[in-house]
Amino acid sequence: MSTSPARSSRVATAVVGYLLGVLTVPLDLFGVFATPIAPGITDRIAEGERTRLTRLLGVRSNSAPSGARAAGYLAARALVGVLGALVLALSALGVVVAVAVVYGASTGAAVPIIDATEPGQVTWATVAVLALPGAVLCFLAVQGLLGVVRADAWCLRRSTRPGQDELAQRVAQLTTTRAEVVEVIDDERRRIERDLHDGVQQRVVALSILLGRMDRATDEAARGELQRRAITETGHILDELREVSWRIYPAMLARDGLHAALEALADRTPIPTRLTVDLDERPPRPAESACYFTASEAITNAIKHSGATAIEVDVERDSRILRLRVHDNGHGGADPAGHGLTGIATRVTALDGTMTVDSPPGGPTIITVEVPCG
């Protein structure tokens, strides 16, 4: 019983999407003829049609056609829209005829197939004769409406399908990205090993020395001092382990999501950091990871190299894209080919995302990442 309102809502949404598809035929034709003059208008109209299909009719599509493909798509879609109008008109005509026949049967009007002795009487034979053709026509009408929706979806998918050259380029890109991801993973493992060897391991050795000296000490004052130093060293070890674990993968990111992880990152940053997050729902975990580690790398670079005194981190999501923007007021000059940023770019590219670095000499530095999450 609880699913009935949701099902009714989906049906109503689909009806609205179908009707809009009929009404936007003139707009589609305008987009076709506007292509030589203003191709941007054609692209926006095609994007609007994609939005209608995805949001109202449940068609899956991550992108809209552009350029010449957008014009071809709108031309085909206009034909589908005209077909949809014809099917809708025939369906409405069938409903009108059915209502007229039933009304004539109920009032005893002159209908040849009715066998009624008095006005208002309709025999079972009459009902059967009227119901069978009506059911067939209703079935055909529904199939016609569904066929128009399928044709509409097919036009969008066909116009966004990559060609042979694009597929070859995509395969080459994926091959390169795979090799880069493997290299980045190896670099991360080596960095973690260095952090553990040069940081945690050295402190553990120092702690063991302190404990050995404390065990051999006979003077109570010296023993107490060594114990205090050992406790302090234990705190440093815990801090080092926490830093290493956060660099590997913060538990808060997996448990509480991107917003909470970025808040913790901002709190741990010695430079004043303003965080703005606009997320209506939690993004997919790979997109969260890419954005978090981008923010972490950008903030680390700002602290170590830029001389920045303020950092801004903005996160927003629309229907298909998770977007992160990190801005610092440092002296700029960040190298996109540097080790850290290259690793982040590889991580983002592996998710079909993009990363741009705008860091002119003198600053500021703006790093923007867009990751698909639809």
Structural features, described:
With 374 residues, the chain is an alpha+beta fold. It contains eleven helices and five strands.
Reconstruct the topology from this structure.
Elements: H1 3-23, H2 25-34, H3 39-56, H4 68-107, H5 124-160, H6 164-216, H7 220-248, H8 251-256, H9 258-268, E1 273-278, H10 285-306, E2 311-317, E3 321-328, H11 339-350, E4 354-358, E5 365-372
Helix pairs in contact: 1-3, 1-4, 2-3, 2-4, 3-4, 4-5, 6-7, 6-11, 9-10, 10-11
From the structure above, extract its key features.
alpha+beta, elongated, 5 strands, 374 residues, 11 helices
Number of helices: 11
Order of helix and strand elements from N to C terminus: HHHHHHHHHEHEEHEE
The CA-CA distance between the termini, in Å, is 30 Å
Averaging pLDDT over every residue, what do you get?
A: 80
Which strand order do you get reading across the main beta sheet? 1-2-3-5-4
Shape: elongated
* Computed structural class: alpha+beta
- Rg over CA atoms, rounded to whole Å, is 33 Å
Helix content: 55-70%
**Unreliably modeled segments:** 110-117
Largest sheet: number of strands, sense, barrel closure: 5 strands, mixed
